[in-house]
Amino acid sequence: MSSALLVMDVQRDIVAAVDDGSEYLPRLRRAIDGARAADIPVIYVVIALRPGFPEVGTRNRALAAIAQAGLYVEGAPGTEIHPDVAPRPGDVVVTKKRASAFSGSDLDLVLRARGIDSLVLTGIATSAVVLSTLCRANDLDFGLTVLSDACLDPDPEVHRVLTERLFPQWADVLTADDWVKTLVSR
Fold first, then answer.
1. What CATH number matches the domain at 3-184, 3.40.50.850, 3.30.300.30, 3.40.640.10, 3.40.50.11810?
2. How do the pLDDT tens digits run along the chain, 186 residues long?
3. Domain ranges of the chain
4. Where are the beta strands (DSSP E) in the chain?
5. Do residues 119 and 143 make contact, with C-beta atoms less than 8 angstroms apart?
């Protein structure tokens, strides 16, 4: 199997709103470094909406709230990937328009073109991009791993239930350090 590490929605404004000093970014950085050392592609996924939000419908409550707050506009500083985990030159950055990394993006095309059939998921928020992407990737028959402590959610109990109860039904769930250890033992 050919794998890729997805780093999803780890953008300045999202990190500022959710990370409470939990050492999330250093854990994610270790996963990124481990993937690179094992020659596993790191693919970044960001949410970025057009100025004026023409792609946001009024029935989508989450996106309507984002538009109302004026968040995640293409080119805005807060929409940039957090510098602590920023991509390197040549890394793929996929822009999405909804919760799932597959929605409104060319992620599936990028993965298929590279022969990737297994995904390692990380990101903010566990209950949004990670959950939505996991569901879609499962439907698309990707092999799946979720790095539980390289995902973050504003609600710790929701994160716990997802990573301990729901995600294991569809994916291997490991910590970032345990996953990196599996790469070294290959």
1. 3.40.50.850
2. 799 999 999 999 999 999 878 899 999 999 999 999 999 999 999 999 999 998 998 899 988 888 888 889 999 999 999 999 999 998 999 999 999 999 999 999 999 999 999 999 999 999 999 999 999 999 999 999 999 999 999 999 999 999 999 999 999 999 999 999 999 876
3. 3-184
4. 3-8, 42-47, 92-96, 118-124, 143-152, 172-174
5. yes
